[in-house]
Amino acid sequence: MSSQDHDDGGFSFPLPAEVDDWLTAEATRRDESRDDVCRQLLTAAHTVATDDTLEVADPDELTAVRSQLEAQREEFTGLLEDVRSRVVQVKRETDGKALTDHDHPAYATADDLGAIRDDLAALEESVDRGFDNYEAVLESLLETTDELDDRSTLLARAVIELREQRDALADQRRQRAATERLQRAANQLGIRTATCADCGSSVDLALLTAPACPHCASRVSDIAKRSSIFGSHRLETGDPPALEGRVESPTGSASNELFEAIEADTESGNTTRSDGDGDDVAEKSESGEADR
Question: For the segment 152-202, what is each residue's pLDDT rounded down to a tens digit?
Fold first, then answer.
């Protein structure tokens, strides 16, 4: 009979009212039946009583853990209260600054966003169009600069040619004036022919075209009349003495200043152009000289 009861494993006994109420509440809390809760309690009690390897918690350690948990709970509660008080304070300050009937701006609508997109597209188109025009203006300026460079080069060459022609004409005038001076002096002295002091050749003074011996090309500076009947008139050679106090004519000075100013402007323009694109200027100068 006892063996049969052991196999069934079932028994019942009355519980005190307080224990019965606790058991009912624990079963409800765990969402289990009273029998399951009782079975778990008995199994746990059996394990504690029979398992020698089971480590039982030290009461002092449990007390320390409880004290630590309580201290952390109090600290957390204090921090929570501090945060709550700060939030309340910030809200009160914000409510004090904001007007009672204040309103917030509404969010942008789809139409507003569309208008902004249209404005942005128009701005991009305007910028692109401006850059296109900028490139056209830049190309036009470059072409104009090249044309001005060509003209300045031609002007410089013309200035050089004019200066050379002016110098040649001035030299011719000086030569003619010197020749006329010699012929006038010979006419005043009644001399028709004279002997060159360098080569000894006879020179017809009326046929002179330059103040130089036509035979040896020595420059004639003056005419010396013969000192005796058996002698001959003589052409003195060499450079004439410099005239003191000689002043250049205002016309010549002004023309020199004009030529120098034009050449300076041309050279400065060519220098500036060569700094930016020296190869192009050199090529254009060579092509211009070939054309001329």
Answer: 889 888 989 998 999 999 988 998 898 888 888 888 888 888 888 888 888
Query: Sheet containing 220-224: which strands, arranged edge to edge?
Result: 202-204, 193-196, 234-237, 220-224
Q: What angle do CA 244, 248, 253 make, to 5 degrees?
A: 155
78 in a structural domain: no
Number of domains composing the chain: 1
- CA-based angle 166:168:169, to the nearest 5? 65
Q: Are 281 and 267 in contact (CB under 8 A)?
A: no
- Which residues, including other chains, have CB under 8 Å from residue 216's CB and lie 6 or more apart? 196, 198, 199, 201
Q: Is 220 exposed, middle or buried (0-12, 13-18, 19+ CB in 10 A)?
A: buried
Assess if residue 107 is contained within a domain: no
Question: Side chain identity at 18, as an amino acid letter?
Answer: E
What is the Cα–Cα distance from 222 to 190, expressed in whole angstroms?
14
Report d(CA 169, CA 166) in Å as an integer.
5
Give me the domain span that covers residue 217. 138-239+265-285
Determine contact, residues 235/221, Cβ cutoff 8 Å: no
Whether 146 is covered by a domain: the verdict is: yes
In a domain, 269, yes or no: yes
266 near 159, Cβ under 8 Å?
yes
- Where would I find the beta strands (DSSP E) of the chain? 193-196, 202-204, 220-224, 234-237
pTM: 0.35
